[in-house]
Amino acid sequence: MKRTAFVLATTVCTVGILWAETGDNPYRAGTVSAPTLSSQEQNSVVKMMPENGAVDVNIDTHLVLTMADDVTIGQQGFVSVYDKKTGKLVDRLDMSIPAGPTQGQPNNPAAQYSPVPYSYKVQHVTNRNTKAGTPSGVNAWDTGHYQLDIIGGFSDGFHFYPIIAQGSRLTIYLHHNMLEYGREYYVTIDKGVIKGFEGIRGKKGWTFKTKDKAPDASQRLLTVSADGKGDFSTVQGAMDFIPDSLASEQDGYHVLVKNGDYEELVYFRNKRFVTIEGESRDGVLIHYPNNEVFNPHPTDIKTNELKGTFPSRRAAFAADNCSDLIFRNLTLKTDCKGQAEGLLVNGERNYFENVHVIGDGDALQANGSCYWQNCRIDGGGDTILGRGPSFFNHCTITSYGAFMWIRNTEENHGNVFVDCHFKGLSDYAEIGRLPDNKGKNYPHAECVLLNCTLENIPACGWGKIDEGAKTATILEFNSHDVDGQPIDTSKRHPLMRQLHPLHDAELIGKYSDSKWVLGGK
What value does the mean pLDDT take over residues 403-417? Predict the structure, then answer.
């Protein structure tokens, strides 16, 4: 989206979690508790997760250290994981490699849209069998020198933070799908990875053994728990386990996510008939610092919201080419500003209930039919983006800038809101806008508000609508303030049509029917 006055930042966030923190922290002298640690004055390990010598560890585990003092991450050395039996190197993080870009990439005038639709092949692509960065479409190899990790079968890979530090606690993110069941591993950390810490060396400093086997193939209820006490420790681990393109609802899976803080970049594709349900909406937080700067589209390929385009990598949580999914009782959040979705969903017949989405520009991008029940969406501007159709029922949306930029074609409806609450957080919070976008617009864009509560919304209702969108459908009926009093619509944008309770009763009835809205045109 084009950033306007309400933008807070456009670069990747730098909120004390980057791998390349600078400056020295005043560490206290510490004593070591393991023979493999240096006896010099240093920051010392207070707790390991998994614990040294732990058994029955999930194969998707993060490695977590709690230190005696606050930590600063260095820019040299390796974190390495070895198979204890064979001595084979299983995974390695090179801390001299930057996590990802911190400035937007330059515009490439030669970039084109993919000449053929992007193909979502059903194949098992992981870091163990494919080099991260392998083009999955017609795009060229990425020549940038950044951390790369294949997540959810996306061979182009994602930039990621190998270590995220919060105070005295640091989380080490191994490359996905590198650990196996029934194996014992040991971890080494070089001096320089953590400033003021001599590291962990040898085969006994930090060892753990994974579970003997995966969940039974017939098991349809999977538990995710951040403390390692479930079938998986991460949402990504559970989704990686579930087969692609399940044939029917009877084959479906139910993923129960226990309350906890899940700081992970989640991306999966080709999933059907999966329910992802949190223990409670406020208790389950799935988040990551990601945006268009940190994980941009390929420099030689343009992207848009149309079917067949190259997939976006900028969301904290993305369900790509997925259908018949249910999301319930979750908070999905990006920790960055800029073009940064908390949730991006591409697919059909996806259902969301009691889900909280937190993003910035384009906080929610929804492409394909979606039903939203009692959800909350918080964003910075163009808060709801995508081609639709989406039906919002009793949802709350807050925004600093325009609430939406609708991009549906004539093939389907756009965004319909019934009994929803729009809360503007600035004077720029129009309901929507339709400016020309790089020489094009959306003449079939559709937005309908029925019985909605409007709070701190400009009297014009809608913002800029350029010539290319003069045929858009923008309908409003019975909008009221927080006290239930009718909104004065006399100063509305001239393209906003006010529906009459009698003359337009049939049309109001149709737009109140989610099946009619989501079923196409």
Answer: 95
